[in-house]
Amino acid sequence: MKAAGKESGGQIGWLREVVEAVAIALVLAFLFRSFEAEAFVIPTGSMAPTLMGRHKDVICDTCGFRFQVGASEEVDKLTNRPTGSWVIGGTCPNCRHTLPLGSNRSGKPTTPSFKGDRILVSKYAYHLAEPKRWDVVVFKYPGGATTNFIKRLIGLPNETVRIFHGDILIKKQGDGEFSIARKPPKKILAVLQPVYDDDKPSRILLEAGWPERWSNDGSPVAGGGSAWRLDAAQREWECRAPEQDIAWLRYRHIVPDWDVWQAITEGRPIAAASAKPQLISDFVSYNTNESEDTPFAPVSPPRGDQLGLHWVGDIAVEFEVELENVQSGGELRVELVKGGRVFRAVIHAVSGDARLEAVGDGVTLDTQQQQSDPASFATSFRGAGRHLVRLANVDDQLVLWVDGKASLLPYHRDAWHGPTRADLERPIRIGARGADVRVRHLKVFRDIYYIAHDARSRSFMHDFDWSESPYAQVIWSSDAMERFRRMVAEVMSDPEQWDFFATAHSLEFDLKDDQFFVLGDNSAQSEDGRFWTKEHFVRRELLVGKALAVIWPHALNHLPGTSVPFPLFPNFGDMRIVR
């Protein structure tokens, strides 16, 4: 009996240990969830493409570019039940082809819709340190503190925030003037929006005669050199640049519209000779979602406002460059144009010294840095070799990355300068001298454009005086949307119609103690501090925490790199730190 009792007591002790271990694990998990970190699901696309709400993940069937299209309207935000609406189309940001995504895909399965990104949020971060501008924060909605929202932190306590021409300006308490809020290099990289990837042109488009976006700028170079030539198969540009002259390669934003793609689809010739460059706009592919009450409906052309109504002058370019036969005077130049002013990086190919420059009236470089030449930097260039180069002109600062190392130079403008013909004809140029040069993996990006939209306006999201714009001519009738779409392309191509950009108004928001101002990265579709009526700010006590990482983007339904089915395979490639 004692033996039996002893055995029974052992079983009870083992069971008690298990129960205690489980209880302790649950308590620790509860404490971790309550005080340290918690997972949240992104419900909407207000932070796209930084963070995805419910969406479709699309590979363009004409250029192979990967992009996302919002699908939040397919389910109710509160109940997560189907609404009876189906996203049946979306437009590629790279080649502007509008793709069917529902059961209207001829001979192909419907593009699936995925839940939003699941992110990890540090709930203790702001107990240890103050929130910082540009943090991605989770908070309770000021108008109903039971709902979690996620936005980017823009304004801090005791500041006045101004949104003007897409930029954020800040005036701190006691200051007399506004100054631009500059994003640090890592934040710039986090929010850059894709404009064009030269590795993925539409072969169908090029075969139909549509011009390349990158091309030679100017006449053939002198001194026995050659202009830039394209190896179309390798997507590689090369030239033999003499030391006496600079060979220039330029980008023009030549985007096809719905009519061009319809002609190609129907086998009709396109008017390639009449293709015109446009200004780079605040186009967002995520917002081109077309929804219908049946998944079988045919796709329609994107609306005019979905093409982007605002000129974006804050742009960036990235590429890999390979140098051979470098002469003593060999150099690489990268130029970005904004408002007719040229912002340039000049890299000496032998010494590796780089210089950042601004050319144009009304622009002065910030020379308050503690060094002899504030515009000069050392890079990894040392004669022949291969390098990754990126230049951005964002928030009134030039940032040059060479092989991942960032150098930056702020500047000041005396006033806002509107777009010029140079912004149309050569917004980006790459020049070489004194070397054999190959350039590949060319990519163009733009910065976020924050829209100072008047909440009282019932028209499309915009920040300019609509009555002074060309769009005021559109009489709303049965064909109004068609004419509006075509007009946007015409306006963005015609310098004679750009005066209305100067009519842009600003929005200002005052903050007091413990008040924070937030905006969504997807400005055209974000319900943020611009539009809240009860309180335009987030009180400190409503801050839940800081977004740390995307820990579970939508799963894959196949093994990576294959077509082998594998439901719920982890999507490791899209797991990332949130910046």
Explain this structure to me?
13% of the residues lie in helices and 34% in strands. The protein has 579 residues and is of the alpha+beta class. A hairpin with a 2-residue loop joins strand 10 and strand 11.
Largest sheet: 9 strands, antiparallel
Main structural class:
alpha+beta
The overall strand count is 36
Rg estimate, integer Å: 27 Å
What are the low-pLDDT stretches, counting only 5+ consecutive residues below 50?
1-11
- Average pLDDT taken over every residue: 89
Distance between the ends: 66 Å
Tell me the number of helical segments per DSSP (H or I, 4 or more residues long). Answer: 7
Described by the principal axes of the CA atoms, the overall outline is: globular
In percent terms, what proportion of residues is strand? 25-35%
Helix content: 10-25%
